[in-house]
Amino acid sequence: MPFTLLEKASFTYNQAIRQATFSPDGRYVIAAFDARTVKICGQDNSGKWVEKGSLAHSTTTRSAAFSPDSRYVVTASKEAKIWALDDNDSWVEKASFFTHEDDIKSATFSSDGRRVLTITFYGKTVKILSQDDNGSWMEKASFTYKKTKCHSAAFSPDGRHVMTATYEKTAKIWEEDDSGRWVEKVSLDHSGCLNSAAFSPDGRYIVTAYNGGASIWVNNDDWKGATKTDLYHHPTTIDLATFSPDNRHVVTISRDNMVTIWRKDDNGIWEKKGFCAHDAWIKSAIFSPNSRHMVTASNDKTAKFLSQNNHGSWIEKASFTHNGWVRSAVFRPDSRCVVTSSNDKTTKIWGKNSHGKWSQKASFTHDGLAISAVFSPNGRYVVAVSHNNTTNIFKIKIFKLLNSCNSKGPSPSKRRKFTD
């Protein structure tokens, strides 16, 4: 079915926008940019998107994220600030932690929204902030790296563990003990420089990518007895490895511009099930929410779409083409559409046509390079960011061709009907 993108709001700022995302409940959009403020937009009673708040910092903001229940926001600059939504639909500062020597690269909530994890831009400090029963926020742990750089830190899906990964070939898992102290649980050592580490959605596995290979670690005895399976040894660097939402697949991205997909069989053995090659650097490879599809984004001006067949193998089904680097490609929550953003200044939506083939459904041209675009949780809106310092919010309209028969015969006449 054809789509059209109806622009519902456009917010232009004086500085470049780093990111814009929807809240988990879809009611708000948060935008972080190269300035000392973060903006939050939301819908008023008439459905119009308007600015709801300006969250101020003393230095340039680096990131902003909602809590899983959409009631809190954490923003990061040299300080981490936590904001809460009050009864008047306003965002109120609840806590501020100005304890980092350099800028905070990212700040994220745990799955229950009671903890926040921060990591600095140069990877020297990781901190855990926690909310007490009285609602106040306190610093609970600080991990300092003097001789190496910690490039990533993440909560486990249940929020009980934290994993940190450094370029010194090591990923560490931390756990809160009975006294409230966060202590090292286990160290996962590698033969090469570690580039990424990620939990599986069910928390039972970790996949790591390093110079020369990728490995999967199984949670035994609450990670104290973690066992390792090497997916493969690769002649070049593996930059990224992540799980599918159903925990049964892993995708790796290597610097030879190759994406490889692995699947766990019924005996727990990981097998190579598909691959696709690009002609330039691959920015991302993302599974669909239903774990049946994958989309990549590359500097070769394409996003490639792969699907799993009935035999479990992954086959390239389509190549979405732009006239510039593809900067991002993500799925709609129902897995039925993909939105891409490109240096050719366009945001495009792709979906299946009447013949079952994937094709372009809608396109919007920006005044600057298109940086990113994501769907709202209900799939009805898209928020797009461009290099002209603008955030656009679109509503997706779908029109169907409906048949109607007159009283004189079976010949149908066609008319368009718009639906949300």
TrEMBL record:
<protein>
    <submittedName>
        <fullName>Protein TolB</fullName>
    </submittedName>
</protein>
<dbReference type="GO" id="GO:0097361">
    <property type="term" value="C:cytosolic [4Fe-4S] assembly targeting complex"/>
</dbReference>
<dbReference type="InterPro" id="IPR015943">
    <property type="entry name" value="WD40/YVTN_repeat-like_dom_sf"/>
</dbReference>
<dbReference type="GO" id="GO:0016226">
    <property type="term" value="P:iron-sulfur cluster assembly"/>
</dbReference>
<dbReference type="InterPro" id="IPR001680">
    <property type="entry name" value="WD40_rpt"/>
</dbReference>
<dbReference type="InterPro" id="IPR011047">
    <property type="entry name" value="Quinoprotein_ADH-like_sf"/>
</dbReference>
<dbReference type="Pfam" id="PF00400">
    <property type="entry name" value="WD40"/>
</dbReference>
